[in-house]
Amino acid sequence: MRRTGDLKLMQQLNRSIILNTIRESGPISRSQVAQKIRVSPTTVTSAVGELLEQSLVKEVGSGSSNGGRRPVMLAFNPESRFVISVVIDSLELSIGKVNLAIDVKKKVHHAIPNDGRFLELLVEKLQLFIDEEEDLKDCEGISVIVQGIVDSEQGIIQHNNRLDLYDLPLRDILEERFSIKCYVENDTNGLLLAEKYLGKLQGDSDLLYVAIGDGVGASFFTNGALTRGANGGAGEFGHTSVNANGLPCKCGNRGCIENYISWRAIEARLKEDLAKEKLVYSSQDSVKPEVFCERLRKGEPVAAAIYKDVLEYSTVGIVNLVNIYNPSFVHLGGSLPYLLPEFVKELSEKVKQRSLSSLSNNLVIQGASFGPDAGIKGAATVLLHDFFEFSL
Ligand SMILES: [Zn+2]
Q: Where in the chain do CATH 3.30.420.40 domains reside?
């Protein structure tokens, strides 16, 4: 909504643009900022005064001059604030402390037991994490990403069938408990925002993020914004069917891609196929993706057969997404693309061969920019997107 004439709003907007300019182009002088964004030097001086007071920028010495006084250079100060990032996976809760440059300063991981007491666990572990912080005055907030359908405006987890969370007003619960501003967002939306604002793809407007890991999900960034759908559920890629007569899914449909390519599906099939062959990978109940990838690289037939199917189903699913959304970039995140760069390469070739040629000509498919910290960075980006991108 445009509200011209609102002086306060214009000042806030200018301050935000000036902060972003210093963040992206610093060290930079006040007059260089004014030239770069075409605003008056007085506006820059006033906004910088405020930013210095808030420690969001700092003076870092003098720049060169063409004869006059050497200008004072300004740089962004990412250590001035921090965000508490929370990643809720189906098996693991991760909590991290992240600065304004989205560097992870500290992180902890906790297993999520299947005892229906997830909310208690979250509050208890967050309290422990917060108790270790000496000073919360520089904390910009708690930013949570979680699998499933999320109403991010209201901060409600609408549907997460792995943890049995339905219509949970998580933002209000956490804000009341900790008196800190809180954000809640779908996990792949957070991961996509991190790619968009910090990853390899800054500046591109039509992006697709596909996570192939513990679960399967997708997010779309089209026309400069996240595509959320009428109920906030856009991107439930895991429940798109790739086999009309396939495996029944918890959602009521058949052949949902999640039942073929998620790590949980791969692990279940691996155990079944190993049992048939009277083989074991480990004496433990669960097999780690790393072990599967290692056996695959050694050419083990059981792993190779599963991989072949995962590649085929992933191709079918992503070709459908490319033909629907016509993205310029597809990012593949999650454990499988991270651990197996060759999977990203083979999948990219197959998707390009099988999607419409006019849509795949300039299409780039690549692994996500961030490794194991992707979730913690993604959660922080949700909050910092709001912090830096002051929008009208
Ligand atoms: Zn389903």
A: 81-192+375-388, 202-368
C-alpha distances out from residue 358 to 45, 171, 206, 347, 361, Å: 49, 43, 15, 18, 6
Cα of 1 to ligand 1 centre, how many Å?
38
CATH topology of domain 7-79: Arc Repressor Mutant, subunit A (1.10.10)
Q: How far is the CA of 210 from the centre of ligand 1 (A)?
A: 16
- Rounded distance from Cα 257 to ligand 1 centre (Å): 8
Report the CATH fold assignment for 81-192+375-388. Answer: Nucleotidyltransferase; domain 5 (3.30.420)
pLDDT at res. 11? 78
- In the chain, ranges of CATH 1.10.10.10 domains: 7-79
Expressed in angstroms and rounded, the spacing between residue 236 Cα and the centre of ligand 1 is 9
Task: Tell me the CA–centroid distance for residue 58 and ligand 1, in Å.
Answer: 51
Whole-prediction pTM: 0.88
Contact indicator for 326, 201 with CB cutoff of 8 Å: no
pLDDT digits (tens, 9 = 90+) for 40-61: 999 999 999 999 999 999 999 8
Task: Provide the CATH number for the domain formed by 202-368 in this structure.
Answer: 3.30.420.40
Distance from C-alpha of 222 to C-alpha of 225, rounded to nearest angstrom: 6
Q: Angle CA(363)–CA(326)–CA(306) in degrees, nearest 5?
A: 70
